[in-house]
Design goal:
mainly alpha, two-stranded antiparallel sheet, 1% strand, globular, transmembrane helix
């Protein structure tokens, strides 16, 4: 029966893989989308499609033709500004400067290894899932550090190594959006959400902050840890059975004295850094408070990008100095430069996506499509929780073909954020629903960049592991995470709890 299920999954994924492999590179996709906006702007302009401006009663919005003389001038004169003004570009590059030091100095990998090797055996599964979820603070480091480590730890205890690999992979990938800290994903998606909201209500967009889903994602960490632990211990490991691979139990490399000293130093630096930052906002006289001492929508919240940079940079520097991975300022510069060198593909993607987003906004097609779509949905009576669930299903399906969270959101945010605002749902809620659907299906798509790497890790213990085997192992996590996370969001909606200070569930003009 298991073989039949695996065969069905394998055939389904083979189809998805074939279709997905025929898609152009995301960079090419955005250039294609930009060209489509140009062509459709001319068509829709000729059709005289128009709607009433929701912010200015009595005014009419029409589609601007980018193939007109004025439109052609706009495309040429705005190309550079469209690139440099692409909201996620600066936020990602700045945060990665700090995260790059923490990662390349060795702090992140040592922290993950120390966390996973210092807990009681009975808490190992929960620790792996928790560490996997938290690893998103170091971008994609969890895939290459924690996933193989999970297999090694389980093998060292005589448990099935693939169960340990699966637990870590589920935390790292399916729980990618959740974290106790703000990560580079928050400003990355938040900037796109804010940019999309501004096309519908610029005033409301100015009140938004990048921590718009923080409360919800903090609670999600503990909920997903419990779910991932249960699925591993009660479903995945029993299904895998007793390991017969012949690999001897492995010893996990314990932390060296220098690494322990480095972690202690980094921990002290982290506490002191947070304390100094707290002085900027906790006291009533704090310079990072807003007018009249307000905290919500204060300069603190609008400065989260450099704050994330500092929080990762200083502990990373301290760790590197103590462990000798950083000896001079040249090492710091080199590590930052190496990090930026890996961002080349993202910078090119930002140029292409910047043109698409700018064209979409300039033509008014985004706001018109949002209003027309919202009116259609309203006419069918399809609103509320069913609407949100349908949106999440669409996101999950698209994630099977386009793995990048930012690439998908750059395409979807200009359409769905204004549409949901028109129906009375906040951009913050739309982004939370997106993050859930995007995360939970990462582990079941072979087009996710690290999927092949995880298979390679698994083949160390079982040469027969392929796409079907891995997907069959990870499917219970995807289903369980999706169901529990959706239920959690529905409870959040029914109780009317804000997603974060100043981040409501519903939108009102």
């Amino acid at each position: 029966m298991t073989q039949q299920r695996t065969g069905i999954v394998s055939r389904s994924l083979d189809t998805i893989e074939r279709v997905g492999n025929k898609l152009p590179h995301p960079i090419t996709l955005f250039f294609i989308f930009a060209m489509m906006v140009i062509i459709f702007s001319a068509i829709f302009s000729a059709m005289d499609i128009r709607v009433e401006d929701p912010l200015n009663e009595g005014e009419i919005l029409t589609v601007k033709n980018l193939l007109s003389a004025e439109g052609i001038q706009y495309m040429f004169t705005s190309a550079v500004d469209n690139f440099t003004g692409f909201a996620p570009l600066g936020t990602v590059l700045v945060t990665m400067l700090g995260i790059g030091i923490a990662e390349r100095s060795g702090l992140i990998s040592t922290l993950l290894r120390g966390l996973a090797t210092s807990v009681p055996k009975q808490l190992l599964t929960a620790t792996l899932v928790f560490a996997g979820i938290m690893s998103s603070m170091a971008a994609d480091a969890g895939y290459v550090v924690l996933t193989p480590l999970g297999a090694v730890l389980f093998a060292a205890l005589g448990r099935h190594p693939l169960a340990g690999l699966a637990a870590a992979f589920a935390g790292v990938s399916a729980g990618y959006s959740a974290n106790l800290l703000l990560t580079s994903l928050d400003p990355l998606l938040g900037s796109l959400t804010q940019q999309a909201a501004a096309t519908y209500d610029p005033v409301y967009a100015e009140t938004m902050n990048y921590a718009m889903n923080y409360y919800f994602m903090v609670v999600s960490v503990f909920v997903l840890t419990l779910v991932g632990t249960y699925v591993t211990d009660k479903i995945v490991e029993p299904r895998l059975g007793t390991y017969q691979g012949g690999i001897q139990q492995e010893e996990v490399e314990k932390l060296k004295p220098a690494e322990k000293k480095g972690l202690i130093g980094a921990g002290i630096a982290f506490v002191l850094t947070c304390a100094l930052l707290a002085l900027l906002i906790v006291p009533e006289w704090g310079p990072m408070r807003g007018p009249e001492g307000e905290i919500i929508n204060s300069p603190f919240f609008t400065s989260l990008v450099p704050i994330i940079l500092i929080i990762f940079l200083i502990p990373g520097l301290v760790y590197g100095i103590i462990t000798k991975s950083i000896k001079t300022d040249k090492d710091v510069a080199d590590q930052m430069s190496d990090t930026m060198a890996t961002m080349g593909a993202y910078i090119v993607l930002a140029f292409a996506a910047g043109q698409f987003v700018a064209y979409f906004n300039e033509t008014n097609m985004g706001i018109i499509l949002a209003i027309k779509g919202a009116e259609f949905i309203e006419s069918t009576g399809f609103t509320g929780i069913p609407l949100i669930l349908t949106f999440m299903v669409v996101v999950a399906f698209i994630n099977l073909f386009i793995g990048s969270a930012s690439a998908k959101w750059a395409i979807m945010a200009p359409i769905f954020v204004p549409m949901m605002m028109h129906l009375g749902y906040s951009p913050e809620l739309t982004q939370a629903a997106y993050r859930i659907a995007d995360s939970t299906t990462n582990i079941i798509t072979p087009l996710m960049p690290y999927f092949a790497i995880v298979i390679a890790f698994a083949q160390k213990y079982d040469k027969k592991v392929g796409i079907g085997t891995l997907i069959a192992t990870m499917l219970p996590y995807a289903i369980a995470f999706s169901i529990i996370w959706v239920i959690m969001l529905i409870i959040w909606l029914l109780l009317g709890i804000d997603l974060d200070p100043g981040s409501p569930l519903y939108y009102t003009r």
